[in-house]
Amino acid sequence: MRTRKLFALFVALAPTSALVAQEPPATVLEAWFAKPPAERGALPNAEEPLSRRDAEALVPRLWAACRADAARRGEDTLPAILPGDLEKALEPTTLQIGEHAMPYVLLCKGEKPAGGWPLFLCLHGGGGNAEAQGPHAWDVNSREWQAQKTLFQRVYQPAGLYLIPRMADDRQGRWYFDHNQKAFEELITKCLLFREVDADRVYLMGISEGGYGTIRFAGNRPDRFAATGGMAAAEPLETSPPENMRNVALRIDIGERDTMFDRIGLARRMGERLAELRAADPQGYDFVVNVQTGRGHGIDYSQTPPWLEKRVRNPRPSRVVWTVQPFHTTVELQRYWLALDEIPAAMPLYLSATFTGNQLRITAEIDAPKPGSGRLPASGGRLRVRLDDRLADLDAPIAITVNGQARAEVQAVRRLDVMARTLAERLDPSYCFAAELVIDLEAK
Q1: pTM value?
Q2: Contacting residues for 294 by C-beta, under 8 A, at least 6 apart
């Protein structure tokens, strides 16, 4: 999905060892990052091994240089943070995503924590109206967008930045559509680069139609957020796979009388499935389904933000569960510290990868051809496993098992080219990795 620009990287690094001192000049790095990936070739000395200390020291320096270069290139199109001028802050800015235009506001509340701002992405209710006379012509979505701004002023309490977008096209609706995925990715990335947002404290919440979108993102893009909150909303298990929510916190607030479209039933079934998953894997699946007594579709919205703000993303969970399938029409090829080179030939592809010390266990399965006949081992494809010393001891060999079959032990190597490439792919400092293994999923 990632169609965002890859920013050139101006690296002005003080050497941390004799090896780091051999890095190519900043102009060479900048020219390399400016090229399309297929044309980049090799960076001088980039494949030389790094020590753990060198690799850890490089991450903040690479990120700082990336931010500085992005600013130099004029990529900061976000509105200024105006904590003392709400009237001015409420004047919308518009993000262009292909043929779609998304108005939004960026609001500020409270004091910035030492680790950076939390970011709350707030999705309004409403939806789609095929009869609307234009992309922003339906008064329901306009009214619901205004309601989110009012909730920011009167109800939402946690300190942070609040990014409140308006539906890009009333005639289509649906927050999970591809153009909205791209818009959210661009806006979040720019907030990381230019507004001192803590990459591990990004939250998504929404009401009604916005809540549907929130839960879909939890099941399909969990690695972007620390926590998500769907209010007056629920989703089927098929569209929002709960297995994928192992490492993202999910809260659903729903009225007990919210029976339209079986919202209360869907919410309870989601909670039941998440409870089963947590019982089998107690280190994951942080969730709450809060049924508000006596309420219908209108509920108390004040409970979700303070619950979300207590959660912090772990970008290096010891276990990743990934059902690979289309999210709208896009197939994501990255999830936490895992990546695929291409869209799988058969989907859903069920991946699970677990680190226990320096033991890596991978399962890769697909559905059997006959419905109801269980799963079979995946018969091909390559899986990239991104590593650093928070996941494993990279100075020691790593033992690998794929679908129960032991593979030869491997020695991971920390390298500058892996760090530069993974940072450029995600533009998220928490996903800058020092080493990478490429594992053939074909049975040996």
Answers
A1: 0.92
A2: 255, 256, 257
